[in-house]
């Protein structure tokens, strides 16, 4: 009897302490410093309104007042850090070659039309700018705009060069970097721990496990940004999904899209970004759940939604 009472009191004490710290995490953890906040994030510069990852796309997004540019980095054969999503150029340029095998001066231009990855049956037609830019071009053009860098390949030289560029342009306080790969994120953190990192996929799964076991409030976290998809929108064509795929998507959505999780993280100074949302109902759901920011291919649509609903972009700076 005494043993049962002891176990019950211990469990109750754990549950109550966990619940208290979930709501008031600063009782145990110092809140992380937030040098910037991003509500409006332009995915690849706004891949639904301009050709993705081009200077034209980035300028358009910054002119709209976006809080953050999201982009992808690779390295060319002559070790130039370029802004492009795919390792192979075929989808974006029609030329089947790897960026790492081509010198920067020899990179082909983008095609006139590119599909929008996260919008069904949507193609973006570009203007005159079909050029693959250098990362330094973006830093020079938009010195005050926070940038979210996806390191696309596990390459030590690429990680080192990105870090050097961030330091050179004095952007450690307005840059976040990482990848879904835990190995890449660990290398980024080791190369320059002053640049905030994203949660890797492995760390996201750990985060969810800690949340549902009640352990999360007790665990220190080095990451400052959680960037996760809204599972309900990831699949392009729900009509072609099997029943098991529907169940998995529903389960992932139910586990990830939790207001209590988002509120706990933001209370600890960890920003929560949900990607890649292109419809008003998804914008609303993400903000209603407590997400810090939304990443979109359509920056104009997101800006209009935010203005209509009183959720304004926080970045009032321009690229100059």
Structure described in brief:
The protein has 320 residues and is an alpha/beta fold.
List the helices and strands and how they pair.
Blueprint: H1 2-23, E1 40-43, H2 55-64, E2 68-75, E3 81-83, H3 90-93, E4 113-115, E5 123-125, H4 135-141, E6 147-151, H5 156-168, E7 175-178, H6 182-191, H7 201-213, E8 225-229, H8 231-234, H9 243-256, H10 259-267, E9 271-275, H11 280-288, E10 293-296, H12 299-308
Parallel strand pairs: 1-2, 1-10, 2-6, 6-7, 8-9, 9-10
Antiparallel strand pairs: 2-3, 4-5
Helix pairs in contact: 5-6
Overall strand count = 10
How many individual helices? Answer: 12
Determine the structural class based on helices, strands and strand pairing.
alpha/beta
Low-pLDDT parts are 316-320
Description:
The longest helix has 22 residues, at 2-23. Helix 5 (156-168) packs across helix 6. The strands form two sheets. Strands 1, 2, 3, 6, 7, 8, 9 and 10 form an eight-stranded mixed sheet that branches. This protein has a two-stranded antiparallel ribbon with strand order 4-5. The chain has helices spanning 2-23, 55-64, 90-93, 135-141, 156-168, 182-191, 201-213, 231-234, 243-256, 259-267, 280-288, 299-308; strands at 40-43, 68-75, 81-83, 113-115, 123-125, 147-151, 175-178, 225-229, 271-275, 293-296. The chain contains twelve helices and ten strands. With 320 residues, the protein is α/β, with parallel strands linked by helices. The chain is globular and about 80 Å long. Helices cover 39% and strands 14% of the residues. Residues 38-306 form the GP-PDE domain.
